[in-house]
């Protein structure tokens, strides 16, 4: 019998099994059943594919999604494995070929959807000897889950037919009810449960509560602007929102599409394929999107709203970074989301459970301790080590005495007879001069203007906490008005202590985050330009073979090549993800590319801006150039603007969004076409920093 370790190396190009993979494979090889629970990206496929390669006869893989099937089969073929899928989209000829391959035992893996399985079983499949059956996305058998598929319920009949071969059920859904349902529904007696860690350390976690709409747009544009070449998913609650955001991205110079269940299946498939093949970078989708997506280089996820439970949220963010490289996730949420979610579940028979799940989600979003630990504890894994890759760990709260702040807020609410929401409260406390406030005579309250020492964002931060601490309540059934709880009343009367976390501005948080990131990163000019060349090569090969790029190589593999600079085939084979077949097919070309990128002595004789130009041309980001040259980013910006004016092909739009340039343009016009930074900066309320204004003015001077 072939050895699983050798197969892992020779076929997949990996050196070591991930936790549990080997145990699962050996368990199956000994003929026993199993239920495998691993997070998305955890490496489930290898668990059933390697036994399939070792067993003598064919392995059936039941999988609900055609696109997912196709991609897995392509990936297997690219590694030299005899695999096929069987579905309704194929011609009769293709189907006959596959049946023939099965009859003559030439296939190792056959993928089928549950529907096609029923048909095939009635005609030809019944008589084909089978070694092993794997059921992917097995949570679809559970009526408790959101993904229940009636066809999965029929799988039990097959279990009876194949009761002498091992079964493996795989899923990323961890809750206990689903787990039990899986073994019951599939009729697996006493399967061994393999539950792997749900920790995905490469995903950064951040939550942005209560961000006003305009500010949110600006933040999101900046976020994706910093990740221009990278792919990402923005999850929205409603179909309309997906369309709105996609249009918003496109009008700001990005390449986005929307996706939701209201579209025809053809257009959905087209969008999905386009995303997988890197034809555009951003997809704005409802949660209908993603289950069949096996795209390994999704680099970010934004949630536009609070998800309805932690399982769903975890699965959605899990679609980023499947290749193990660092990826970022941001969750935006708003009290209105909570109302909407509560409304959704009112009619449900499982209302109580759903409400409880929403509550857990809110607790996560409002956490003041490590978010990853909260997530993991939800799945039954406990740790109190800070993860250092979530927003809370990165800028841990510093606690201050918040009694005066609390008293101001609470008396502000009381003096309006608990008749206002948080925006009006903040306006009163800060002494704002808005029409509605004057109409309602709130400018005559004793609390008017008492809190003008704190910015709007600061007040928002403190009020959120007073709500979390239970001093103030939001009336979800009464226009989100703020009400004072008995504990809140006690603060005014007694001398009770109130501990609040100090406000840290978003700009400062970003700075801290950036510092920790540049410390981690140490890529050089050669490395990243080589990476880009390898990526271009991969794209070409993928197009020739009509498969998604990651079927050829994952980003992680290209990255490692760019890092290690292998000199010969033996060294190339050491790279993770480089199996034997891929070495044969692509090895020579890759070694050639690496060779062409050997470090050259380019820098020292050049002028300072020329040196910056050389690094810029090799694909480094602004911060990387600054780090490499030991100069400040502002100096580098100066160089780039100068080079741009000298007509070098510098893409300044990388550093400033179209939206920002437009703002700078109108402000400049308003200020009689000034070219000074400060007046524009002040006119824009400090919302766009000096560097960006300088870049914006350079762009405007050239084209306008
Ligand atoms: P899942 O189906 O659990 O979401 P996959 O099976 O698609 O995850 O695996 C995720 C990624 O991890 C794939 O790119 C896969 O090639 C890779 N992978 C799996 N096992 C290993 C391993 N032992 N070493 C390195 N990479 C692995
Ligand atoms: Zn953390």
List descriptors.
alpha/beta, 704 residues, 50% helix, seven-stranded parallel sheet, binds zinc ion, Rossmann fold, globular, binds adenosine-5'-diphosphate, Arc Repressor Mutant, subunit A, six-stranded parallel sheet, 33 helices, 5 domains
Tell me about this structure.
With 704 residues, the chain is α/β, with parallel strands linked by helices. It folds into 5 domains: 192 residues, Rossmann fold (3-Layer(aba) Sandwich); 192 residues, Rossmann fold; 105 residues, Orthogonal Bundle (Arc Repressor Mutant, subunit A), CATH 1.10.10.10; 77 residues, HRDC domain (DNA polymerase, domain 1, Orthogonal Bundle), CATH 1.10.150.80; 52 residues. It is 50% helix and 11% strand. The protein is built from 33 helices and 17 strands. It has a 7-stranded parallel sheet with strand order 3-4-2-5-6-1-7, with helices on both faces. Strands 8-13-12-9-11-10 form a 6-stranded parallel sheet, with helices on both faces. A two-stranded antiparallel sheet has the order 14-17. Strand 10, helix 11 and strand 11 form a beta-alpha-beta unit. Helix 2 packs parallel to helix 3 and helix 18 crosses helix 20. The radius of gyration is 29 Å and the shape is globular. The model has no long low-confidence stretch (mean pLDDT 88). The site of adenosine-5'-diphosphate (ADP) has 19 residues, from helix 3.
